Structure formats: C-alpha cells, structure tokens
Amino acid sequence: MTIQWFPGHMTKARRQIEDKLKLIDVVIELLDARVPLSSRNPMVDEILKGKPRLVLLNKNDLADPQVTSQWVKYFADLGLPALPIDAATGTATKEILPRVKQLWAHKIERQLSKGINPRAVRALIVGIPNVGKSTLINQLAGKKIAATGDKPGVTKGQQWIKVGTEMDLLDTPGILWPKFEDQMVGQRLAATGAIKEELLHLDEIALFIVRYMVQHYGAALQERFGITELPEDMDNVHEVVKVMEAIGRKRGAIVSGGKVDLDKASLIIIRDLRAGKMGRISLEKP
Ligand code: G4P
Known about the structure:
By secondary structure, this protein is α/β, with parallel strands linked by helices. 42% of the residues lie in helices and 12% in strands. The chain folds into 2 domains: 7-175, Rossmann fold, CATH 3.40.50.300; 201-274, Conserved Hypothetical Protein Ylqf, Chain: A, domain 2 (Orthogonal Bundle), CATH 1.10.1580. It has helices at residues 7-21, 44-48, 65-77, 96-113, 133-141, 183-192, 202-216, 218-225, 237-250, 262-274, and strands spanning 26-32, 53-58, 82-84, 121-127, 160-163, 167-170, 174-175. Strands 1, 2, 3, 4, 5, 6 and 7 form a 7-stranded mixed sheet that branches. Helix 7 (202-216) packs across helix 9 (237-250) and helix 9 (237-250) packs across helix 10 (262-274). The longest helix is centred in the middle third of the chain and has 18 residues, at 96-113. The two termini are 27 Å apart. It binds guanosine-5',3'-tetraphosphate. The site of guanosine-5',3'-tetraphosphate has 18 residues, from helix 5. Residues 14-178 form the CP-type G domain.
C-alpha cells in the first residue's frame, strides 16, 4: 500500500494518534527490523509524548540476526525496550504481553496497594504503512480483525481486542509517516517494500541493493547468483551496473540482440531481497 503523504495527511494522522493516545496506557512502536531507523517516524517521540513504549523489530525473519541484536542494544541504550518479532508467523509475539505488562507494572502495583483490582493494560500499535501493523493485530487477536492496508482518514468506531485477560489492544493501529526527505531512507524503504517501486526507478533501487550487498553481504550475493568476481570500487556506478548485468545474464533477463534487460534484472534483485532469497539481510546498522 502506498500513501502519498502531504502535510495535511500528516496533520490528520497525528491528530488521529493523539485521539487514540488518550485511551491507552502503553504504545507498541512497530519498526522494520531490516531498517529500524529508516522505518521510524521522525517525530515519534514528540507525538507519543512520553507514553510508556515497547519497540518491536518486525520482519526479523528477513533481517540479519547479528545486526538485529545490535539494534536491540541501541534501543536499550535509548531507554527503550526492544523485541525482535515475526508477526506473520507469530515468532516471539507471545513475549509482547509480558513486556507490555512490565511497562505498566508500577501502575498495577499502585492499584493493588490501594486494594483496587487492576484492569487490563490498554495498548496501541503504531507504525509506518506496510511495517506489519495489521498482521500483528490479527496475530495477537488470534483471528483476522484488521483489514491490511488501513488508510489514515478512514474513521470507524474504536473496538478493543482482548489479548488474554491482561491486555486490551485497539483494533485500528496508529499510522505514521516515514522520513522520506532523506534519499538514503527512501532507497532503504523502497528496497524493503515499504514504499512502492513507482516512487523510485527500479534500477535505482536495485543499484542501491547491489551496492549494499557487495559491501556487506558479498558472499551471499555471489552464492545466490553464481557470480565469481565482485568489483572493489562500489562508488563507481559503472562497476555496480556490471554486477547487475551479470545477475541479469545469469537469470536470462536478456533482450533481443543479447543485451541485458536492466529493468527485468532489477526486478529480480528486488524480489529476491524482499523474499529473503539472498539470506537474512539488514540494510541499516546502528
Ligand atoms: P501494515 O498494516 O502496517 O500496513 O502492514 P501489513 O500488516 O499489511 O503487512 C505488510 C506486508 O508485510 C504484508 O505482506 C505482510 O504479510 C508482511 N509481513 C508482516 N509481518 C511480517 C513478518 O514478520 N515477516 C514477513 N516476512 N512479512 C511480514 P504483503 O506482501 O503486502 O502481502 P501479503 O503477504 O499480505 O499477501
């Protein structure tokens, strides 16, 4: 899903989250484990205004586990507990409730000390489009509740989803916008599929992927595409294009005359990365 974010949409999205914040105790901030900072809203601290917060690094099945550990430490250093999960299969999602409860434990203790029976902790999931909010809501609900692809501006009555007896989750997530002004962020988001290909050219996205792969995951790239040699100078665009052409040739992306169809080769590279065919790849390090 693509949302064309204009200032008006951002203001509206922000207002919608602020309305929801009044109802909840703990925020679950969903990020893409492969690109945690790039998939993060630039104003998130300001928007969430000090609400207790759990960071979830989603799609961890596609991310480099070593790099994900570094991100967990990075967020811990910022005072934010972070948990890598895989919302699609439910890996580690059972950990969410205890972590959310930890963030709310002081309130529960206070209620207990006053002799009040503590109510379920109320949580809201927020994140940029395509990060997996609806998938996670459905996973936690144990059934299909959230239509994937909620759009900001579509209002309906708020419903609570019971996650066990101890957590109530708002059924519609808070939708935040990414910080796409930064070109590198745009490339990372396009590579992971958070923004649509049409917003950048296919060859531009593939060029970014191949350059990053050669620099950080050269062996995985060679193994996937059977390339024997990788160039040294990845700042030289021609060298990167040569690798893309070699991949195209290996995969039969050829036009008449025997030239490589670079758009087709680019699509192969992008799809392979997104499907995890090159292995678990992170495109951003702390
Ligand atoms: P959103 O509400 O935040 O916009 O995201 P949504 O849940 O719609 O998820 C966006 C895409 O990310 C979906 O795939 C979804 O399956 C995928 N996804 C969510 N969580 C995970 C995860 O932990 N691992 C992986 N590998 N993928 C995940 P899609 O390509 O849009 O289509 P489809 O799979 O729904 O057919």
